[in-house]
Design goal:
The protein has one domain: Inosine-uridine Nucleoside N-ribohydrolase, Chain A (Alpha-Beta Complex), CATH 3.90.245. It is built from twelve helices and nine strands. It has a nine-stranded mixed sheet, with helices on both faces. Helix 1 packs parallel to helix 2, helix 1 runs parallel beside helix 11 and helix 8 crosses helix 9. Bound molecules: calcium ion. Calcium ion binds next to helix 1.
Length: 320
């Protein structure tokens, strides 16, 4: 049976690949895609998300969410990673469809409250929309089967030495989501260096189906990612001819958790800190006992992934 899904995103290059996988997956029934400020400004995120949905061959509705972080002056964008348009400045045609009239937070609350069966909620951007929805209607927490998020880092960050982008872009929102009493799966940056990459052989198989608009778009973005990383240290981190989009791995793990290895940790978000704002603090003490009353901070954390199983899922879902 297909699982009902809501995906929240800030469509840059890795979100685009992740959305294509989710929208094409026979495991998912995507009820809506909600958008948030992040990789690029919300206006660009809306355009990019509509482009991606149009390339997916589906007509899933797209909703406009928060244009700023909970502390507006702390809002972030990352055009240096995703290109000024957020999709690597590839010439995808302008969208012909429009966003839905309803606001993303209203859509999320309405959909969760009306759900007869619990819904999977996947977050691959800053957690602003999710925090706003939880704050406005806490009863939605009882409607969530699993909250899966690309968020944080154990070893080191990417935006700062300590912080990963999605958390750094709105730590106050992340704190609300991390402390929500729901089952949580966290995909930090770490598995990207431990098997969570898409190797060249799979990229080639996706590129070979450029007759399919979703494969054409995914392959162009993957190859652009490789070009943009050329000559930088990112290239060595990804491996030759490979890509490691964090959001794509997150959706793949939501489809098939057996792609990854997980451990349970208590994780907190640092909202202060001169050097550590936005850091995710993992309690990895070998002798730790979960503290009384703080079980809400527990989550399943992905530490590594199987690159063959991951690549095969992408090919089977997108390119068959
Ligand atoms: Ca993202």
């Amino acid at each position: 049976m297909k699982r009902n899904i809501i995906i929240d995103c800030d469509t840059g290059m890795d979100d685009a690949q992740a959305l294509l996988l989710a929208l094409r997956s026979p495991a998912f029934n995507v009820l809506g895609v909600t958008c948030v400020n992040g990789n690029v400004t919300l206006d660009k995120v809306m355009i990019n998300t509509l482009k991606v949905v149009e390339h997916s061959g589906t007509d899933v509705p797209v909703y406009r969410g928060a244009a700023q972080a909970l502390i507006p002056e702390k809002s972030q964008n990352a055009p240096e990673i995703h290109g000024s348009d957020g999709l690597g400045n590839l010439d995808f045609p302008a969208p012909v469809t429009q966003p839905a009239d309803e606001n993303a937070i209203a859509f999320t609350i309405r959909t969760l409250m009306a759900a007869k069966e619990p819904i999977d909620w996947i977050m691959i951007g800053p957690l602003t929309n999710a925090a706003l929805a939880m704050r406005e209607e806490p009863r939605i927490l009882g409607k969530i089967r699993m909250l899966t998020m690309m968020a944080g880092a154990i070893d080191f960050g990417n935006t700062t030495a300590a912080a990963e982008f999605n958390i750094f872009a709105d730590p106050e929102a992340a704190k609300i989501v991390f402390e929500a009493d729901v089952p949580k799966t966290m995909v930090p940056l770490d598995p990207l260096w431990h098997g969570g990459q898409v190797n060249k052989e799979y990229i080639d198989q996706i590129a070979a189906r450029k007759d399919l608009p979703w494969c054409d778009m995914a392959a162009k973005i993957m190859r652009r990612t490789i070009d943009m990383a050329a000559g930088s240290r990112r290239r060595y981190a990804m491996g030759e001819g490979a890509v490691s989009p964090p959001d794509l791995l997150t959706v793949a793990l939501a489809i098939d958790p057996s792609i990854g290895q997980f451990e349970q940790y208590q994780v907190r978000v640092e909202t202060l800190g001169q050097y550590t704002r936005g850091m995710t603090v993992f309690d990895r003490r070998w002798n730790r006992e979960f503290e009384q009353g703080t079980h809400v901070n527990q989550m399943a954390v992905c530490l590594s992934a199987d690159p063959q199983k991951y690549g095969q899922l992408l090919v089977d879902t997108l390119a068959k």
